[in-house]
Amino acid sequence: MNEFLRKKWEMAGLADDYIFNKVMLDYDICLEVLRRILPDLHIKKIKLPNNQQEFAVAPDAKAVRFDIYTTDEQGNHYDIEMQVADHHNIAKRIRYYQTASSMEAYDKGQPYEQADDSYVIFFCNFDPFQLGQQRYVLHKHIDEIPEQIIEDGQTDILFNVPSLRHDVDPKMQAFLDMIAQREVEATDPLVVKLKERIAVVKRNRKWRSEYMRRSVYEMDQEMREKKIREGERKVRDGKREILEGKRELQKSRREILEGKNEVQKGKREIQKSKREIKEGQDRLKEKEQLIQEREQKLHENQQTIIKTSIVAMRELNIDETTIKKEIKEKFDLSDKEIKDYFAE
Asked: Where are the alpha helices (DSSP H) in the chain?
């Protein structure tokens, strides 16, 4: 286990959410990444990034823990997340993160129109919507007028890190390549800082120990969740089997009753079948006799035609060999049958 965790720590890069969080805690790196994500905002400065900040929309509501949370000089709120695995709940997950982030944008007694803007940013190690895009920017819009965006101050941005489309700005692409551990221009100042920061993180013994403890906890948690899911599946299967058993019992009872009816019906059908067999045999004999009579007549007609053909060709002074060959091929006769006709 220790060797496994050691190798996992050594191989971990920005795609690992723990490493990502520790790297993004660096003020300069976080600021530059936000500038590359949102160049139009011209962000000048931000508050010191907060790691694993927790918010709860209500006391009894599910709490949300942000990977990286900060605000800029304009009061805009930023939540930056690294999403390693696809749990097929990304849309609902974004909605909750955006709700928690937006709550910070409304000060008590402040008019709604003065609320700060909120940005939730996800770096996904998979295509979050399976649509092939490298970047997804989400806003609300009017269904009847899709091009009409609702300016409510909420923006969701998702990056498909494995994508090779290169649809984003080259500087942004460099950051995505760093996450995906692809080759990247070493002269990019952000790339230099990222490599240095990753090295600093990897040398930090406290973070290394924390990473390993967390990894063990996550593996244990995953195992527990797997066992719980397996138990729930067995319970569901058991209930389904009981229900199916009850249905099968009812079905069997119906089948027994139907079977009795079928037996009585079968006896009647047997008697009927016997009569039909007898009638069928009689009809079959009649048909066989009729077929024999037809075959006999056809044979007699063919003999007449053949004999007439032979006489006609002889009258035309056609030699016997040619006549035999012609008759044989035309009527598909055997040598013996040909011999019999010409022996007459």
From this structure: 2-11, 17-24, 27-37, 90-103, 170-180, 189-203, 205-315, 320-331, 335-343
Average pLDDT over residues 294-308: 82
Which tokens go with 301?
């007609």
Q: What are the residue ranges of helices labelled H in 38-155?
A: 90-103
Collapsed DSSP state (helix, strand, coil) of residue 275? helix
* Cα–Cα nearest to 28, from 46, 8, 12: 46
Through-space distance between the first and last CA atoms of the chain, rounded to whole angstroms: 105
**pLDDT per residue as tens digits for the range 3-58:** 888 888 989 999 999 999 999 999 999 999 999 999 999 999 999 998 755 555 54
Q: Which stretch of DSSP H or E encloses residue 181?
A: none
d(CA 12, CA 8): 6
User: Per-residue pLDDT averaged across 179-184, rounded?
Assistant: 93
Instruction: Compute CA distances 84 → 38, 232, 265, 330, whole Å.
Output: 22, 26, 67, 83
Question: In the sheet that 68-71 helps form, which strands lie side by side, from edge to edge?
Answer: 50-51, 68-71, 77-83, 118-124, 154-160, 135-138
pLDDT tens digit sequence for 64-81: 567 899 999 998 999 999
Residue 157 Cα distances to 2, 37, 95, angstroms: 37, 9, 12
Q: What is the pLDDT of residue 61?
A: 47
